[in-house]
From TrEMBL:
This is Protein L.
Length: 80
């Protein structure tokens, strides 16, 4: 889970970008913090760069399933 100290710097936003599930290695659509929907591992990625690949972190696919990324915190200057 992502943490923050200063709530004045974060705003809720209901946007479809937060609902999209991205494949490992796919291009990042919005700069921010991404979370693996399968195991909860979090990382940052910059718009236009590839999201971490499948081998970036491992979890047993037979028990947890494949790595999939979801945007959880988006940089404001990149929010659409």
């Amino acid at each position: 889970m992502a943490y923050y100290k200063y709530p004045a710097y974060l705003n809720p936003k209901d946007h479809p970008a937060f609902d999209a599930i991205a494949e490992p290695g796919s291009l990042t659509q919005n700069s921010g913090i991404y979370r693996c929907v399968t195991c909860g591992y979090e990382c940052t990625s910059i718009e236009g760069a590839p999201l971490p690949p499948q081998y970036h972190h491992q979890h047993p696919a037979d028990r947890q399933g494949p790595v999939r990324w979801r945007l959880v915190v988006c940089s404001a200057h990149h929010a659409h």
